[in-house]
Amino acid sequence: MNVGIIGLGLMGGSFAKALKRYSIAEKVYGYARSEKSKEEIIELNLVDEIVDIKTLKDNCDLIVLAIPVDNIISMLPEFLDISSNTTIMDLGSTKEFIVNNVPSKIRKNFIAAHPMTGTEKSGPKAAIDDLYEGRTVVLCNLEDNENIHVNRAFKVFQEIGMRIVVMDANEHDIHACYMSHLPHAISYSLANTVMGHEDPKSIIALAAGGFKDMSRIAKSSPEMWTDIFKQNRKNLLKSIDLFEEHMKKVRQMVEEEDYSDLKQWMKKANTLHEIL
Ligand SMILES: NC(=O)C1=CN([C@@H]2O[C@H](COP(=O)(O)OP(=O)(O)OC[C@H]3O[C@@H](n4cnc5c(N)ncnc54)[C@H](O)[C@@H]3O)[C@@H](O)[C@H]2O)C=CC1
Ligand SMILES: O=C(O)C(=O)Cc1ccc(O)cc1
């Protein structure tokens, strides 16, 4: 099997590494837009060859879109003339808007996937060897796909050591919002709150583990996350409203010195880690 990867940053670059590690592809082709990315991809030896989109389409059994979620949608018309045997797969963090915007001509070929693994880093240098190992990938709306493409996706994800979960795209976006998109909104808010109040010297001198843990994902790519917030806007707004209710509640308990209720509220939060 030949695989083509469009976008060789954290997700695409790590996918290329996993394919090599498990000898899954005969040849891995890459497509990158900027000269800087191309240089980095060659230097890091992420793919066998960097090619244009036509070469990818003519030579690959599987084409992986590992680019920001709005770019995934704008790129889809490029694939209207692909062979019915070629699988296209995206790795985007949102799913419903994407599946609803796949042109009907290639809907059977298009596998909507979301690997539930990543980091706050981006670009080719962020690619890591074992990003996918032992992690979960969510595949959405597989009833819209032809079997050849579903089987190919299952085979590749299993071979790189992933656990597969199948879900409706709408349901996926709700879960992804609470487990990932809301935490990113909170982390960005925390970072901006602290920077608006503390000077850099105090931040360096006093930042402890908790603050570092909670602000790590505030380093994530604004290009990628603006698109995600845009595509999952409805769920994100609802989750922010629910989160604000909790912030109001803790504020009120502290203001009214209601420490017994505060302790109960904290104890309830502690139980999350009995599940995790
Ligand atoms: N970062 C993470 O932890 C995770 C990201 N995702 C999703 O994976 C996708 C890729 O994210 P990352 O790899 O983290 O981003 P990244 O920023 O590390 O890599 C994306 C690469 O694609 C390139 N690119 C952008 N538009 C392009 C286009 N039209 N043609 C060719 N190259 C293009 C960029 O220059 C960049 O090198 C996104 O859709 C994101 O939502 C999914 C799970 C985890
Ligand atoms: O860095 C982290 O902890 C993440 O949460 C990474 C991440 C980012 C986006 C996703 O769609 C999935 C995972």
TrEMBL record:
EC number: 1.3.1.12
Domain Prephenate/arogenate dehydrogenase: 1-276
Keyword annotations of the record: Amino-acid biosynthesis, Aromatic amino acid biosynthesis, NAD, Oxidoreductase, Tyrosine biosynthesis
Molecular function GO labels: NAD+ binding; prephenate dehydrogenase (NAD+) activity; prephenate dehydrogenase (NADP+) activity
Pfam families given in the database record: PDH_C, PDH_N
KW Amino-acid biosynthesis (keyword) present: yes
Catalytic activity annotation: prephenate + NAD(+) = 3-(4-hydroxyphenyl)pyruvate + CO2 + NADH
InterPro entries in alphabetical order: 6-PGluconate_DH-like_C_sf, NAD(P)-bd_dom_sf, PDH_C, PDH_N, Preph/Arog_dehydrog, Prephen_DH
Organism superkingdom: Bacteria
Cross-referenced Gene3D superfamilies: 6-phosphogluconate dehydrogenase C-terminal like domain (1.10.3660.10), NAD(P)-binding Rossmann-like Domain (3.40.50.720)
A GO biological process held by the record: tyrosine biosynthetic process
Biological pathway: Amino-acid biosynthesis; L-tyrosine biosynthesis; (4-hydroxyphenyl)pyruvate from prephenate (NAD(+) route): step 1/1
Family: Belongs to the prephenate/arogenate dehydrogenase family.
Protein name: prephenate dehydrogenase
Organism the protein comes from: Halarcobacter mediterraneus
